[in-house]
Amino acid sequence: MLTLTVANKLETQQLSHNAGPLEIGRGPARTGTARVVVKDAFVSRDHIRVEEVPGRKVKVVNLSTKAPLTVDGHAVLNPGADCDYLLPVRLAVGETVIDVDSGDAEPMSVNVLRTIAAPGKPSGGGGKTVVAPPIIERGEAAKPEEVVAWLETVVEVQKSSDREQFYKKAAEALVERIGLDSGIVLMRDGDAWRVTAHTSRDDAPKGRAFSHAILNQALAGRRTFFVGAAGIGGGESLVGVQGVVVSPIFDEREQVVGVVYGSRMQRAKGREIGPLEAQVVQLLATAVGAGLQRLERDEEANRLRVAKEAAEEADRTKSGFLAMVSHELRTPLTTIIGYSEMLLEQAAADNLPQYTADLNQVHTSGHHLLMLINDILDFSKIDAGKLEMARDPYSPSSLLTDLLVSVEPLAKKNNNKVETDIPADLGKGVGDPTRIRQCVLNLIANACKFTKDGVVKVTARRETVAGKDVLKVAVTDTGIGMTPEQVGRLFQAFTQVDSSAGRKYGGTGLGLAISQKLCAAMGGQITVQSEAGKGSTFTMTISAVLG
């Protein structure tokens, strides 16, 4: 196994590679080839290939066609050349330094690591919290003011407003508050670890900052590990390191996404790294994890808010456009309808029956277009919340009886028979007679359109439902009916029950959607019962007296 640390001005990443060739370059990985992607403009797309060979050696191949590699600060590996080197070895290209070592060279056995209780997290069952031991354990010699300062630092870290501040403050806290010589925050990027913040004491002796064994133990064990000077081995990968503590950072799915890593490069004048320091580091890691989760929630909330505002603005723009276009179309259509009526009268007066059929077609088409445009205008007003409902007195019986006269041509078109059950005395109502008439006409026109050689029945009742005075108008037909899936799409704007129905029967699919919205504005709704091949019943329920 190889361990690699890749560092330049833009990034530091560390990873382990088990076996086989590993490529290093600026370009993305190819299928089936392990790769480390480096952020360095001086590194070629495919620049270096390394592979472990027997005898604690690594085979290095310079894949570049132009740039040589510097090996251990003095040797040069020219483009296209390859060579075996004893581990560890340092490769340099551009502004990037790559340290390659054997994974077996870790001097520290995980058996010497000590641990503390895992950080408390909500359990999956009843939402209970697993409580970690108290931060101050018996026998730990820490002054109260030190503990308070540590806790204040944890709070300060969690209050950070962005990711960089989380990482920076956590790394600084390891050095400034806990007294370690090096504080690092590493975040996982695939199989690699990226250094996102690194703080060290100016007078601290230099030593290798990382231990793959400890990082991997924190990743696998999902808890905080630490070791003092007594447990540190003397291998070359941790020369001068006198103590290490590492604690995992969890995301909201409880996956390890990073670690807080602190080390001491010289023997402590006071006590060694112990459980108390480990618990404070764990608190820091928990604060970073909680803060990152909060930022993600805030960012998601902002994304949703922006999307909602954009959708609302688009909706307002759409409604304004529909209203403008509808208004602009209604004026010339009204003129067309008016002139067609005048021409029909003139043709009758001049005894020119050969023009009557064509003029009737123009007149009928104009009325049909005007009806569609009125629907679109109504829908845009309702959608924008600008539709006002009148509150005028009216007689439900008279309104419905008069309305049925105008539906006779609709019924005759498909050879349907219209039956009524409208009591003479349905009392007095208060509401918007124009909108009530519009809703009932839509229901009857819809029934007549989808029924042929059948019966359309209109029934009206005045009832008290849940203490509320309501007017019910039911329209029943013996037409084609609908399936449950079609009923589910029935009141969606611009939607027919299915595409074939839209082609065969025409219309915009707005009538029922508008009627449903109008009924809602009048304190009611439209319900439907239907069976394919047997017909449908639409029931409109509205408040008889609008408040």
Describe this protein's structure:
The protein is an alpha+beta fold and 547 residues long. It folds into 4 domains: 102 residues, Tumour Suppressor Smad4 (Sandwich), CATH 2.60.200; 170 residues, Beta-Lactamase, CATH 3.30.450.40; 84 residues, Helix Hairpins (Orthogonal Bundle), CATH 1.10.287; 152 residues, Histidine kinase-like ATPase, C-terminal domain (Heat Shock Protein 90, 2-Layer Sandwich). 36% of the residues lie in helices and 26% in strands. The protein is built from 11 helices and 24 strands. The protein has a 12-stranded antiparallel beta sheet with strand order 8-7-10-11-1-2-14-13-17-16-15-12, with helices on both faces. Strands 4-3-5-6-9 form a 5-stranded mixed beta sheet, with no helix packed on it. The chain has a 5-stranded mixed beta sheet with strand order 19-21-22-24-23. A hairpin with a 3-residue loop joins strand 23 and strand 24. Helix 1 runs parallel beside helix 4. The longest helix has 75 residues. It is elongated and about 110 Å long. About 3% of the residues have low confidence.
